[in-house]
Amino acid sequence: MDKWCEAKTQVTLETAKIKIGGLFLSYKMSKRIIILVVFLAFLPGWIFAGRNDQYVVVLSMDGFRWDYSTIYHTPNLDRIARRGAKVVSLMSAYPSKTFPNHYSIATGLYPDHHGIIQNNFFDPLIDRSFRMSDRSAVEDSVFWEGEAIWETAGMQGLRTASYFWVGSESNERYHPHDRKLFQSGFPYLQQMDTVMYWLSRPEELRPRLIMFYFDQPDLVSHEYGPISPETREVVERLDSLVGVLDKRLKREARKLKININLVILSDHGMGHIPEGNRVFLDDILDLDRVKRINGGNPVIMLEPESGYLEEAYQKLSQANHLKVWKREAMPPHYHYGTHRRIAQLIVEADSSWGVEINHRKRKDGREFTYGRGAHGYDPTNLDMHGIFYAKGPVFRRKYVQPTFENVSIYGLLAQILGLKPAPNDGNFDAVKGMLRKF
Ligand SMILES: [Zn+2]
C-alpha cells in the first residue's frame, strides 16, 4: 500500500459512521467508547465504592434503654440529640438478646436469617452447640451467616475496625482489618484510646468504620433492675464517657480535617421483674423428657423427645404468665421460626415475669436470688427498645426520627460510607430522614 492509499484508508476509517444502539457515531468516537467500556469492565469494584470521605464511629452500650435519658441525668447524650439526630426508640430484633441483636445491627438481617438465633443454641446440621462464652464457637465462621458491614466494606476496599463487636471475631471469613477479641471487664477509657489511635493513623491505615462495645449498663440492670440507684450510677458514668468521646472525636476531626460521624446505640432495653414473679419449667414439665434446653430468661427453647412434644405444648399453654409457640407458628412480627437452629417449642414469659428452667438453691440451702432485670421479650414491648443517637457531617441537627428496627442500621451505614449493601431485611426509608444531602 502506497503512502497515499494508506492515508486515504485512515481518513476513511476516521470519518466513517458506525451505528451503535440506533445512534450513528464516528469511528473515532466509537473506538473511544469501546476502550472506555473495556477499561471500566476491568476496574476493581472498589474504585466505585466508598467514593465519599465520611468516617463513622459506632459505639454500642449494652442494654441502654430508650428512656434512660428521661429517667437519669444524661447531659452529653442530650447535647448529641440537639446537635444531631436521635430516634424516639430503637426496636430490637427477636429475641431481644445481645448476640442476636448486635449481629442484626452488623448484617441488617433478622436472627432467623443470620443464624445467631439466641445467645446459645444447637445446630442439628453440624451437630454442634454455640455458646457466647465458648471462644472456639464464637471464632468459628460456620455459625455466622449473612454479610456483616465489615465484610461489605472490606470487599469494596474500605478499611474497618472492631473493638469487641459481636460477630467480628470469626477467623476464616472476611473480618475487620483491626479488631480486639472480647475480654470482660476491659476498661472503657482504654478502648477509647485505641479507637482514637486507629483514627490518628495515616489515611491508608485509618479505618473508615469503627464499631466498639461497652458491656454496661446491661450487667448492673440485670442485677438491680432498670430503675435503681445502681443503674443510675452506671448510666450517668457512661454518659460522661460519651461526652469525652464526642469531644475527642471533634478535636481529631478538626486536626486531621476529616469528616467523623458518631453513632451511639444499644442492642436492647431492659424490663423490671418484681420479686417473686418467676415461673419454673420443672414445676410444669417432666424435664427428663426434654432432650435439649437453650436460651435463657425470659425466652427458653425446648426440644422435647419424640412423643412428648404435644403433651409439653399443652401443659405450657395452660401455665400462667407464659406464652408458648411451636416454631412454625410464631407471631409474624417476630420474624422468627424458620431457621433450623430454632428448637420445636419457644417459651416466653409475660412482660414483668421471668421464666427459669428449675429451682436453684444456694450452698446454704436458701432459695437462689434472681436478678431484677431481663430482656428478650417481644420487640414491640417498649421496655425492650434501645437508643440511637447520631451526630456528624451527614446527620441533620435537632432531628427526631420515629421508631425504627435495628435491621435498618446496616443499610444506613452502607449509604453513609458509599457502599453497595448486600440484600438485607432493613428499610432505608425508615432511616433516611436523619441524613442531610452529602
Ligand atoms: Zn445486650
Provide a descriptive summary of the structure in words.
The chain has helices spanning 3-15, 27-41, 68-71, 75-83, 98-107, 111-114, 135-138, 149-155, 188-200, 218-224, 229-256, 309-318, 409-417; strands at residues 17-20, 23-26, 54-61, 85-87, 90-91, 120-123, 128-131, 160-163, 178-180, 209-214, 259-265, 271-272, 278-280, 290-296, 299-304, 322-326, 345-349, 354-356, 373-374, 388-391, 399-401, 404-405. The chain contains 13 helices and 22 strands. By secondary structure, the chain is α/β, with parallel strands linked by helices. Helix 9 runs parallel beside helix 11 (229-256). Strand 1 and strand 2 form a beta hairpin. An eight-stranded mixed β-sheet has the order 9-8-10-3-11-20-4-21, sandwiched between helices. Strands 14-15-17-16 form a four-stranded antiparallel β-sheet, covered by helices on one side. Strands 1-2 form a two-stranded antiparallel ribbon. The protein has three domains: 2-42, no CATH class; 49-272 and 379-434, 3-Layer(aba) Sandwich (Alkaline Phosphatase, subunit A); 278-370, Gyrase A, domain 2 (2-Layer Sandwich). The protein starts with a helix and ends in a 21-residue tail after the last helix. The chain is globular, with a radius of gyration of 27 Å. Zinc ion binds next to loops.
